[in-house]
Design a protein that fits this description.
The protein is 57% helix and 0% strand. By secondary structure, it is mainly α. Helix 1 packs across helix 11, helix 2 packs antiparallel against helix 8 and helix 5 packs across helix 6. Keywords: 4Fe-4S, DNA damage, DNA repair, DNA-binding, Endonuclease, Glycosidase, Hydrolase, Iron, Iron-sulfur, Lyase, Metal-binding, Nuclease.
């Protein structure tokens, strides 16, 4: 049975993990969804559910040329918008949510994307993950986005225990310094896509292998 980690040891390991991530991936804030405005990012994140960012970017190139404002989306015909985003999957619910979301943006927020968790969660199709993406990337508010990579790897590292994304968010908020909350998502996505892949993690190639209790070397 492995020796139980003390609070001091855990804190030191977390600091080493963060230093290693910064050294490997840098500390630049990167958003993988292409956008030019806050409302474009909001729609892109809604579209990204159960879909890759790369696929979303292929669709939004034309989508944002056709619909040039939240008002255009608010007035869109459901069937037409479904056709426009059909290739992304779950297109009926996504189209319905986008139209409803943009109607609320126009009617309640003057066409602007709100900057609080409570207001963002009032929008159709917006959960904590989407809200945190907006708060972090648009408004530079410290936030932790729990996607599939962050969930899986945070558990592997022993930084979270829950399977529930919202609970994981709060677990990570307790152990990660606030200045690293946004970076955690950016860096862990990169790690999850390249090394700590879900089906077959490349533990032998991982720069965190000496710091990861789940490493299989």
């Amino acid at each position: 049975m492995a020796k139980r980690e003390t609070k001091t040891e855990r804190k030191e390991r977390i600091e080493k993990v963060l230093h290693a991530l910064d050294s490997e991936y840098g500390t630049e804030y990167i958003c993988y969804l292409n956008h030019e405005t806050p409302w474009q990012l909001l729609i892109a994140v809604i579209l990204s559910a159960q879909c890759t960012d790369a696929r979303v970017n292929l669709v939004t190139v034309d989508l944002f040329q056709k619909y040039k404002s939240p008002k255009n989306f608010a007035e869109a015909e459901l069937k037409e918008l479904e056709k426009d985003i059909h290739s992304l999957g779950f297109y009926h619910m996504k189209a319905k949510n986008i139209i409803s979301c943009c109607q609320d943006l126009m009617n309640k927020f003057g066409g602007n994307v709100p900057d609080t968790m409570e207001e963002l969660l009032s929008l159709a199709g917006v959960g904590r993950k989407t809200a945190n993406v907006i708060l972090g990337n648009i408004y530079d508010q410290p936030s932790i986005v729990v996607d599939t990579h962050v969930k899986r790897i945070s558990i592997k590292l022993g930084f979270a225990k829950s399977e529930d994304p919202e609970k994981i968010e709060y677990e990570l908020m307790k152990v990660l310094p606030k200045e690293h909350w946004i970076l955690w998502n950016i860096q862990i996505i990169t790690l999850g896509r390249s090394i700590c892949v879900a089906r077959k993690p490349k533990c032998g190639e991982c720069f965190l292998r000496e710091l990861c209790p789940s490493a299989q070397v």
